[in-house]
Every structure is written in structure tokens, then in C-alpha cells.
Automatic annotation (TrEMBL):
Cofactor annotation: [3Fe-4S] cluster
Protein's name in the database: Ferredoxin
Source species of the chain: Mycolicibacterium holsaticum
Name of a matching Pfam family: Fer4_15
Region Disordered, annotated ranges: 69-103
InterPro entries per record: Fe-S_cluster_ET
Keyword Iron-sulfur appears in the UniProt entry: yes
Length: 103
């Protein structure tokens, strides 16, 4: 059973479009120049998955990196495993990636 997903933000390629903060303001904040910062450690609970995945998929420069699902071990200790994960399936309703993002 998944305990949520893991993401990372590469600030070196962020161009400040702000789609991430629009879709998932609890996980992304914008600095004074409009560039994104990740709020927290990149662990996203299942209840916020759709908002964060929409932010990831709408980022025009792909600055948000999907690290896969976070699965707690049987001993209830956090043992993060970073491995290549399959591409997530996007939700297509209300998709700015499809209809075009206007800043």
C-alpha cells in the first residue's frame, strides 16, 4: 500500500511560470521573483496526490521530478528507496497542459 508519492524540485531549471503554486500551494511557494520552492521534504500524502501530479504535469520546464511512491516498511521505520518509477497517468479533466497555459 502506498503512503503517498515523493517528488523533488530542481530550482536550477525553474523559469517561474507558477503553475505548481497554483495547483498545489501547500507544496510549492514562489519567491519574490516568482521562482518556485518546495515546501516540506517532498513527501506527498495520497489525499494531495492529484493536485501535486497536476502541478508536475503542467510545469512547462519539467522542474518537478517524480521519484515514485513512498512505501513504509513492515517495521514502521522510514526507509526511502529511490528507484526509477513508471510515468504517472495524467488526469485529463481541466488540464492546462492540454488547453495551454497563459501567464
Amino acid at each position: 500500500m502506498s503512503d503517498g508519492l515523493r517528488i523533488r524540485l530542481d530550482r536550477t531549471i525553474c523559469d517561474g511560470f507558477g503553475a505548481c503554486a497554483k495547483h498545489a500551494p501547500d507544496y510549492f511557494s514562489l519567491d519574490d521573483w516568482g521562482y518556485a520552492s518546495l515546501v516540506g521534504d517532498g513527501t506527498v500524502p495520497e489525499k494531495d496526490r492529484n493536485a501535486v501530479m497536476r502541478a508536475l504535469l503542467d510545469c512547462p520546464v519539467h522542474a518537478i521530478i517524480y521519484l515514485g511512491e513512498h512505501r513504509p516498511s513492515d517495521d514502521q521505520k522510514d526507509h526511502p528507496e529511490v528507484r526509477e518509477a513508471p510515468e504517472p497517468e495524467p488526469e485529463t479533466d481541466d488540464s492546462e497542459a492540454i488547453s495551454g497555459f497563459v501567464r
